[in-house]
Batch of 2 targets.
Target 1
Amino acid sequence: MTQTPVRTPEEHTEHHTHVEATPSVLTAEQIADAVPGALRKLDPRKLVATPVMLVVEIGAAATTVMSVLDPSVMGWLVTVWLWLTVVFGALAESVAEGRGKAQAASLRALQTETTARRLHGGLGGAEELVASTDLRSGDVVVVEAGERIPSDGDVIEGVASVDESAVTGESAPVIRESGGDRCAVTGGTLVLSDRIVVRITSDPGHSFVDRMIALVEGSERQRTPNEIALNVLLTSLTVIFVVVCWSLYYLAGYSDAHQSWLVLTALLVCLIPTTIGALLSAIGIAGMDRLVRRNVLAMSGRAVEAAGDVDVLLLDKTGTITYGNRQAYEIIPVTGVTLTGAENAAVLASLSDQTPEGRSILTLVGRSMGGPAEATMVEFSAMTRMSGLDSPGLSVRKGAASAVAAWAKENGGQVPPETAVVVSEIAESGGTPLVVAEHRNSDPARVLGVVHLKDVVKDGIRERFDELRAMGIKTVMITGDNAATARAIAKEAGVDDVLAEATPEDKLALIRREQRGGRMVAMCGDGTNDAPALAQADVGVAMNTGTTAAKEAGNMVDLDSDPTKLIDVVEIGKQLLITRGALTTFSVANDVAKYFAILPAMFVGVFPALDVLNIMRLSSPESAIVSAVVFNALIIVGLIPLALRGVRYRPSSASALLRRNLLLYGVGGLIVPFVGIKLLDLVISLIPGL
Amino acid sequence: MRTRTGYGVCVRHEKSPRCQETVKVVRCGRDRRKGSVNAAGNGPMRVWNGGVSDLIYILLTLACFAGLALLVGLIDRRLGSPETATDDVADVATDVATDVAADDAAGVSVPHDSQVPGAAR
Amino acid sequence: MNATLAAVLQILALVAALALSVPLLGRYLAHIYTSPQHLRAETVAYKALKVDADADQHWRSYAMSALGFSLVGVLFLFAFGRLQNLLPLDGGFDPLPSDGAWNTAVSFVTNTNWQWYSGEAATGHLIQMAGLAVQNFVSAAVGLSVAAAFARGLARTRHQGRIGNFWVDLVRTTLRVLLPAAFVVAIVLVAAGAVQNLHSVHEMSTLTGGTQSLTGGPVASQEAIKELGTNGGGFYNANSAHPFENPDPFTNLLEIWAILVLPFSMAWAFGLIVKDRRQGGAVLSTMAVLLTAGITLLTWAEMAGPGTAPQLAGAAMEGKETRFGEAATALFAAATTGTSTGAVNGMHESLTAPGGGVALFGMMLGEIAPGGVGSGLYGMLMLAVVTVFLCGLMVGRTPEYLGKKISRDEMVLVAVYILTTPILVLVGAAIALTAPAGLAGLSTDGPHGLSEALYAVTSAANNNGSAFAGITSGTPFWNTVLGLLMLFGRFVPMVFVLALAGRFATANRLPDNAGTLPTHRPLFVGLLTGVALVVVGLTFVPALMLGPIVESLS
C-alpha cells in the first residue's frame, strides 16, 4: 500500500494544462539589470561563438570609422543602429540569464560555510571539527537536529526529518533514513530532529547545489547539438551574404552604380540572419529556465533537446497513470439487500479505516454517519485483513473475501454463491473486491455486498495519451502488477503498451530494445535499482526523493518528485526546438522585404526603372536603407519576449504543427517587415538632413 | 555568318549561340590550316609552341586534384564517421562520469552500447 | 494552328513521353544500382581495370576513385587537344592552344561542355569521337554514379561509410544505360535526318556566288549522348540550332525529351533505392514544379515579352530558328538550363530580358530542375536536407531526412555544399567584371554586358555550358577562370555529397511516426520548392537586379 495521498481535484487539472506561455512580462527593471551583462558580452572574443553577431559588430565598427572619416546623417544613423543591433542581441541573452539569477541567489545562501563534525576514520571513529569546504567524498559526518547538512551524501545510520525547502520549495519536512531509497541528503538542508550519520558523496564545488547554481545561471551552459547545427546553417548564410555584398561592390561598379561600403554594410547586416542569431542562446537558456520554473533541473541543455525527440515514454503506473492507490469504484449489493443498506454497512465498517482505500469508500458513498454508541472500532490489520466495528447488537466487517467469509461462518452465516461470482469477476478485471458483512443481534451473519476497489486512472490522462500518440510518442506503462491487472488498467488509460511484473532488469532491457530500433526513450525513477535504466534512457528524470545513485544516473531531477512531469518535459523540449525553427524561418523570410526596401534604393539613381520595385513607396533611398536597418534592430527587441516564453505549443501531429508554424512565422515573416519598414520610413523620413 | 540565313536563322549578332569567335575562328582556322599544311615538315615543333604554358596547365590540374584529395582526407578525418564525431567533449566527459557513478552506486554494470544513439546528457 | 496551341501541344507531347518513359527507366536504374549481378562483358572490364567488383567502397575510396578517374580524363583530353594534328582524322586542324585545350578538357570531364571554340572549325573527327564523345558518356556516368551512391547511403544503415563501388557504377551506367539509350536515340536522329559520316569539308558554291563549306561528321551519335548525358557540347558551333544536329521540330522535341528523361528517371530510381517510392515522387514533383515554372515564364517572355522589337514583330524571333519558333526555343532553353545540359537551339543572348533572366535563374538554382544526370538528384536532395532542417525544427524534433538525423556534422557538409557554387559564381563575376582581360571579352556594356559575364560564370560553376554568345571566351583569361570554376563547381560539391553519403550509410535509421516531418506530401514539395527559390533568390537577386531585372524593366 503506497503512501501517496489522494490528489485534490485542483492537482488533477494542473496536469492537463499544456505548456502554456509562462507569464513573462519583460519589465523595465529586468532589462535594466541585464544591461551591464549585455555590455560585457560585446567583447569580440565572446561573440566568436555567434558568427552572425560578430559580423554585425565588425560591420558596426567599420561604419563607425567610415562615419568619422566621412560624416553624414545617414552614416551616423546606420552606425548607431548597427551598434544597437549588437547590443540588443547581447541584451536578449543577458535578460534570459537574469531570470535564473534570483533562484541562484537563494541557492547560494545555502552554501554558507559551516562546521562539520567529521568522524575520523569512518563510522565509529572520533569526532573532529572541520570546515564543510574541507570535506571530501567518502568522509563520514554526524549531523544532529538543528544543524545543516554540510555536503551531499547518503545517510548510513539513523533516521531524521529534514527540511529541504530551500532546494525544493516544499515546506513539509521529509524523512531521511539509512538504507533503502530515502537515504540521499542534500548539502545545505536542515536536520529538524534526531541524529544521522552521513557519508559524503561529493567533493567541494561539485555538489548538487553547485550544479544547480551553474545550471540556473546558465554560466556553464554548453551549446546543444541542435543549436550547434543551426549555428552552422546560420554561419553559412552569413558567409553567402558577405560574398553577395562584397561582389555587389564590383558588380555595381561595373554598372556605374557605385555603392559605398557603408550602404553595403547596412545591406549585409539586414540580410544575415541577425534575428535568430541574436536570440539563439536566449532561446536555449529560456528553455532550461522553463524547466526550472516547473521545478525540474536538467543537467544539460542537451537533455532538454533530447526530450523533444523522445519516441517512447516509460511511465510508472503508480502516481503517473493512476492515483497511486486503490479506490472504491462501486458497491454491489447482494440480492435482497438495498444499495443503501450495503452502503451504510460499508461506511460503518470503514469509520475506523484510515487507509486511503477506507477513506475512498466514504468519499464514494458521499455521506458519513456517526457510529452507534459504545461501538468498538476494529482496525484493519494485516493479520485479520478486515476492519469494522462491534457494538451491542451489531457488528460489521469489511475486508478480503476469504477473511470475511471466515468471519461470517464463525458467526453462523453463509456466503451466497453470487458473491463469489462477483468477487472473482472483480479480481479478474484487475480490481480488488472487499466483502461487507454484518452480524445483527443473534441472527446469523450475512453478506450485504461487495465493494469494488480499483486502481483509478487519473482524470484526463487518457486524453493526454491520445495527444502523445498524435505527436508520435508511444507510451509504455511500467508496473509490478500481474499481466492481467496491468492490461486492464492499460486499456482503461489508453497506453500503448505495458511492461507487467517489471523488474529493473526488464526496464533496462526494454530501453535497450527500443533504442536499438532507433527510438529515443524517456523514463523517470527514484530507486537505486532504477539507476541503470535512468542512465541508459535518453532522458532520465530522477525524483528528488530518490537516491543519490538515481539522481546521478538521470539527466534531470524533478524537485517535486512528480512522475507526471515527464510529459511536461517532453513538451518543453519540443517547444524549445519549435521556437528555434520558427524564429529562423521568420528571420530568413524577413530578407525578402529588406531586398525590396534596400535594392531599389541603392540603384534607383542609375536605373530609374527600378522604382517599380519600390513597392513600399519609401520616401527616399537613404530613408529606405535606414528604415531597414532600424527595423532589423527593433525586431530583435520585439521578439525577446517570444524567445523567452517560447512559441505557443499544442500537442498535435507534425503536419499540423508545421502548417500552423509555417503560416504564422513564414508568411508572417514575409509580411511583418513590409509593414514595419513602411511605418519606420514614415517617421525616419522626417529626420532633417537625411 | 550571313551564310547561315540559309538555315533560317534570323541574324542580328554575327555570333554563334556559343561563341563570338566563330567568325574569327572560321577564318583563322582556314588560314592556320593552310599554314599547318605548308609547315607540315616541321609540324612537331609547332605543336610544342606552348611548352611552358602546357606545363603550367598540367601543374594547375594536378594542384586542383591534389587539393580535392586533401579535402577528402580532411573531411574524412574531421567528419568521416558519426562515431568519431564528438561535438561536445565536456558533455561526453560528464556522460562517462555519471555512468561510472551510477555503476558504482548501483553495483550494476551499465555497458554503453555504442550502437545506440542517444543517452544524451 | 496558332502558336499558343502549338506550344501547349508540344509540351503535352513531352509530358506524355516523359510520363511513359520515366517510371520504366527509373525502375531499370534502381535495379542496376542495387543488383549484385554482373554481366559477362562487365566482368571482363573489371578484370582489365583490375578492380574487385564485389568490394564495397568506403566513401573516401569512392571519392578518390571518381577524382582519379576524372583527373586521368582531364590529362588525356588535354593531351588529345594539344596533339590532335599528329593523330589521324584530324581534319587538318591545328592543335588547340594550351589554355583552350585545358578549358575543353575540364569542360567535358566536368559534364559542362562549355565550348570556347567552334567544333566544325577547330576539332577533327577523332577528338570529337574518341575524346569528347567518350567524356560525354563517362562524365555523365560519374554524375549518375555519385547520385546512386548518395541514394544508397540514405538507404543503408550501419555500413560504416561504405556506399558501393565506383567502378561498378561507372561501368554499369555506361554499358547498360548510356550506350544502349544513346544508340537508340542516334538511330532515330539519323532516320530523321541528322548527319552521321566521316566526311571532311565540302566546299560548295551558293546561289549568290559565294562559297560555303559544309562539314560532315559523326554528328548524330554525338548528338544523342550530348542530350542524354546532359552534356551539351555540340558537334557544330551552332549546337542544336544547326540543321545537321537538329533537323526538324520532331528531333527538337526528341532532344528535349532526351535531355530530361535521365534526370527525372534518377529521381524516380531514388525512391525505389530508398524503398519508399513516395520520396522519389516528392523529389520528382519538386523538379517538375520548378521546370514547369521555368518553361511557362520563358515561353511567356518569348511569345509576349517586353522589348520594342518583339512587340512590333509580335514575338521575339531574333536569334531563333524559324524551323522551331519561339515556343520550341523557349522550351528547349528552359530544359537545357533547368538541367545542366547547355545545348541550345537558339541564341540565349537574344532571348528577351526576362527570358534570359529565367534561363540564368534556372542555372543559379544549382541545376535541380531536374538538373544534370545524377547531379540534379543530389543537388535537390541537399536542398531537401536544408528544408528538413528548417521545418523539422518547427515540428519540435531534431530534424531527420528518411530517418537519418541531421546534426552538426551533416549540416556542415550540406552548408558547404550549398555555399560552394554561389561563392564561385559571385567571386567569378566580380573578377570577370573588374579584370580588364575579363571585360575585354564582353560584347556590350551596361546591364546586358553584366548578364553576359554573369551567365558565363554561372554556366561554368553550375556545369551547364550554355552561353550568352556575345561573350568572347576563347582567351587565356576566360579559359582559365571558367576552367577553374567548372572544375571546382563539379568536384568540390561532389566530395561533400559523397562524404554525406558515407555518414548516412553509417548512421542508424530512425523509425518514423506521427511526430516525424513527412517528406512525401505536397506540403513538403511546396516547402522544398520555396526553399530552393528563396535560398537562390536571396543569393543572386542583387546580381540579377543589375542585369536581367533592370533590362526587363527598362
Note: Residues 415 and 459 of chain C are 21 Å apart (CA to CA).
Target 2
Amino acid sequence: MQKPIVLVALFILMTQAAFSQKFFSRDAVLSFSSDTPMEKIEGTNKAGTCVLDTKTGKMEWKVLVKGFKFEKALMEEHFNENYMESTKFPNAVFKGEITNLSEINFSQDGKYTVKTKGTMTMHGVSKEINVTGTLKVNKGQLEILSNFSVTCADYNISIPSVVKDNIAKEIKVTVSAKLNAMK
Amino acid sequence: MKKAIYTLSFICCLFGTVLQAQDEDLLSLLGEEKTTDYATATFKTNRIVNGHSVENTARGVMDMKISHRFSPVRYGLYDIFGLDGASIRIGLDYGITDRLMVGFGRSSNEKIIDGFAKYKILRQSSGNRNMPITLSYLIDAQIKTVKFSDSERNNKFSSRLYYTHQLLIGRKINSGISLQLMPTLVHRNLVATTADKNDVLALGVGGRVKVSKRIALTAEYYYVLDKQVTQNFAPPLSIGVDIETGGHVFQLHFTNSQDMTYKGFITETPEDWFYKNADGKMLSGIRFGFNVSRVFTIRKQKI
C-alpha cells in the first residue's frame, strides 16, 4: 500500500520539477538610445517582463511602450504620440527561441553566449530578428544581457525631414534582466 | 485498489505533460497585470487659443510664450491685413509638479501683467482606475498698469485688479479629437457703468481635431451670459491651427479678440466676426493672431 503513494508523490514532484524549468522576470530593464551629433535621446523602461523555458529554449519578452521614461518630458510625449503611437500599439514583444541551447548548462554556474532567433513586434510591425547576448547562471538565478540595434524604418516609424538630423536611423537597444525560477 | 492508484498516478502524470505541452504562450504564465492608462497629450500645448487647455507644462519645464494679436484684417493691404497694429503678450510658464503649474506674462494692451496657477485635480484614465475626464482649476489675476485716464479722480490701486476663476473639464475622446468645457468667472473690481456686473459668468467650449501627427485644428468660444457687460462687447470666437516642430508649438489663428488676458478677451472683445455698423454696412472683426511656445527643460526628469 505504501509504494503507490510514494510513486504518486514522485510523479507530482516530477511534474513540479518540470514547471520550475521556467524562469521569469517582471523588472527587466530595457533602454534605447538614439545618438546623433545634434541630440542624444535615451529612454528607459524598468518594468519589462520576460519568460524563459530552459527545457525548450523558448523565450518571450514584453514591454509597455508607455512605460519608457526620458530626461525631457517633451521627448516622452513625442515618443508616444508621434513615433511609437503607444495608444494604438501599447506593447513591444519579442517571441523567439535559443538556437544554441545545447551549449548552455542551466544547472552549472558560469557565463554563456546565447544566440536567439525570433519575431519582434512593435508599432504594429512584426519582423524576424537574430539577437545575441550573454547569460550568467548564478546559484539558480539567470542574468541576461544583450545589446542590439533596430532600424526605425523596419517598424514603419517615420522620421520627418525637419528632425532627421536629431534622430538616429538605427536605435541602439540594451536589455538586462535577472530571472528567477517560476514556482 | 493498487491498480486504481497506479492508474490515477499515470493519469496525473499524463495531465502534467499535457498541461506543459499547452504552455505555448510563455508570457501568459505571468498573468495579465492590469495597469492604469492615463490620457496624455489631450492638447498640443497648455493654451487652446486665448484660454487655457487641460494640458500642463511638465514638472521642471519652462514654457516661453510669445503671442500677438493684430488689427482687424478688413483694413486690407494699407495695414498689411492688420499686421501694423500688433498687441503683444510675452509670458513664462513653469511646471512645479506634473499637476501644478504657474506662469505670468505682460501684455502691451493696457500694459497688463497677469499671473496664474493651474492645478490638475483629476486625470482622465482607463484600466485599473477609470476616470472619464480631466479636471483642472485655474486662478488668474490681472493688473492693469496703464495710467488712469482721469488722474484728477481719487484712483485706487484696487481698481486695477481683475481676477479669474476657471474650471477646465476636458476629455480626449480618441487620439485625434479632444473637447473641453470651461465654466469661467471673471471678477472686475472697477466697471464702467452701474449696469455692468463686477462678476461676469461665461461658459467656454474648446476643442481640437488632429489632421496629422504634428498638425491640429483648434477652436475656442466663450458664451457670456446676458446683461453682464454693456460696452465693447462681442463673444470671443477663435479658430486656429497648431503646428508642432520639435521644441516649438506654433498656434496660428483667426479671432475677434485683441487681448490675451481673461478679462480682456471675455469682457472686452470689441467686434463680432461679422457685424453691421451704424450705417448698416457689413463689417468683419476678424483678426489674425499667433502664439509661439518654446519649451526648455530646467530640471531633468528622474528615470
Note: Chain A is about 15% helix and 50% strand.
